[in-house]
Amino acid sequence: SLKMASDSPESLMTLCTDYCLRNLEGTLCYLLDNETLRLHPDIFLPSEICDRLVNEYVELVKTDSIFEPHESFFTLFSDPRSTRLARIHLREQIVQDQDLEAIRKQDLVELYLTNCEKLTAKSLQTLVSFSHTLISLSLFGCCNIFYEEENPGGCEDDCLVNPTRQVLVKDFTFEGFSRLRFLNLGRLIEGVNVETLLRPLASLAALDLSGIQLNDVGFLTQWKDSLVSLVLYNMDLSEEHIQVIAQLRKLRHLDISRDHLSSYYKFKLTRRVLNLFVENLVNLTSLDISGHTMLENCTIPSMEEKMGQTSIEPAKSSIAPFRGLKRPLQFLGLFETSLCRLTHIPAYKVSGDKNEEQVLNAIEAYTEHRPEITSRAINLLFDIARIERCSQLLRALQLVITALKCHKDDKNIQVTGSAALFYLTNSEYRMEQSVKLRRQVIQVVLNGMESYQEVTVQRNCCLTLCNFSIPEELEFQYRRVNELLLNILNQSRQDESIQRIAVHLCNALVCQVDNDHKEAVGKMGFVMTMLKLIQKKLADKTCDQVMEFSWSALWNITDETPDNCEMFLNYSGMKLFLECLKEFPEKQELHRNMLGLLGNVAEVKELRPQLMTSQFISVFSNLLESKADGIEVSYNACGVLSHIMFDGPEAWGICEPHREEVVKRMWAAIQSWDINSRRNINYRSFEPILRLLPQGISPVSQHWATWALYNLVSVYPDKYCPLLIKEGGIPLLKDMIKMASARQETKEMAR
């Protein structure tokens, strides 16, 4: 078969890193005083391994709900003599001041802190300890890192009301950061003087000032000989800004894009501004002007525009100012601008909304720092996947998975991403997906269900799970899936459609799985949850899919699982059975599901006495004549009675109906069935049927069992002949043929 790119096994490094992080105590560490992690004294790890341990740890805490963070994790890296760190990426609430403090002796070269809102000005001081080695630093979205807590002096009462006040640190600068070249200050808090902060830096190569409003950027010219990358996303520009940018002649990457929904911008792009960039920034390979309104027409006449093969040659560019480029750009950001729909765009990669390629480029470029843009791009992908066909499926899936993992708490991304996943995993794309990729999808879907109680996300996630082979593909997360679904079904207020999908999934998850799985799910409260749903439906007098699926799920989960059968009886399952029969006398599917379940209960010897009441025996006897769902209801009723009869006359503790009378009705029922009936039933084992063969107490039970085997092996020989042989049915049948007590027609059938 075709080997898929994403299907290669994980590297040994990845597997070991993951294993060590999940088993720190058993591998690298021991517990001191039962709470603090300590590194074993004989362990020495180079930066290649330590960097991975830290970065993977952050990833696991963020994306794997089962993974427990350790309070003292970062202290493992406090001593550079045993553990070396060089390049680390920390994000969000995972990291606090004391964590950075713990690693302050390390010679960090690269430190990315993304949206670390818990970091305060204490961490600014810690940064100084890395100043002699740091080359690359990101403080993107660390909105409190310039705040310190100040205890106000004076009266006691005031201290109670306002124990700590946040004060902006004004005196910090990058003095002494002699090697710093790459700096991201995106979404820096207002009030910090960027110019003063940056002035000590001798030669900056890349600067990101996303989401900061600066009216004067003249100071940027001090790095006009070194700056190769400048990002001013969402800065409202003016003529002054443009003049400064035009002087930064070494620029290779310029991003002046904006989110056109976020606020009002006075600035409009003109042909002159684009010309200025093309003429002055001769090294430009990447330009992003997404979200901008063009004040005037920058395009060539439409007749000329439509002519010839699509070209990326600057000379043929549909955007007139770009005809001055020496060579095509590597990247051109035109997302949410009218320019992206033109024919000839002089760039190898374009972000825009015109087609799948442009949309995927947008998701790829903006996921990390611009969720507000990414969610709109994913929404466009959703439309493409829904209406047309995705031609770059693997890339699309990978990008959506990354966005969902990266922005676990962003509602817009969770809603659009989970909807896109539903269309990207459906059956027409199935062949193109590896096991590994499909597992990643399941992981992010379950993360979404866990962190979002929001109806749309829950529905999208449940629908996406329906695209998988159940239970096989969900086996590796079996407990977690069941817990999440039961959680949805146990909520007091429920969305009808989600309820229906969740019950369907629960039913599929307990169908054809091992008994230990069924027992585990039973212990999670599965039986109780299904009975509650049935109770609600009965109260509303509705027999819909939820009602039928709930009984079907109970039928599946009680199959050869006595504990679950007992739970069914203990939680008044029989009372609900009788009420449903009475309320819905015509519902054939329902009757079949209920009797299938009672067949499972009747197979458990210890529970049969609870079925031995006049009311139940009369109900089962009357159902022998049912024509519902072919022979299924009659067959299951007869099965229940066959197990009861097998306990002998002394177990018949009721006066009405008489045992002989019921036996007579059972014979009549079996003789009325067509031996070639196709069946609506699935046996994993014949054991409960085979145990009725070697006995003389109830010939009718023996006959029912023989009929069942005969029908199944003759109608479905490929499936059931091997099962009969494997479970030792042949010698049992041979012995029965020799029994005096067996009826002649039973022996004929057995032969």
TrEMBL record:
SUPFAM superfamilies, alphabetized: ARM repeat, RNI-like
Pfam families documented for this protein: LRR_Zer-1 (PF25013), ZER1-like_2nd (PF22964)
Domain Zer-1-like leucine-rich repeats region: residue ranges: 196-337
Record bears the keyword Ribosomal protein: no
Gene Ontology CC terms: Cul2-RING ubiquitin ligase complex
Top-rank lineage group of the source organism: Eukaryota
UniProt keyword annotation of Repeat present: yes
Self-association state and partner proteins as the record states: Interacts with the ELOC-ELOB/Elongin BC complex. Part of an E3 ubiquitin ligase complex including ZER1, CUL2 and Elongin BC.
Domain Protein zer-1 homolog-like C-terminal: 404-750
Family: Belongs to the zyg-11 family.
The entry's keywords: Acetylation, Leucine-rich repeat, Repeat, Ubl conjugation pathway
InterPro entries (UniProt xref): ARM-like, ARM-type_fold, Armadillo, LRR_dom_sf, LRR_Zer-1, ZER1-like_C, Zyg-11_UBL_adapter
Source organism (scientific name): Eolophus roseicapilla (Galah cockatoo)
Protein name as it appears in the record: Protein zer-1 homolog
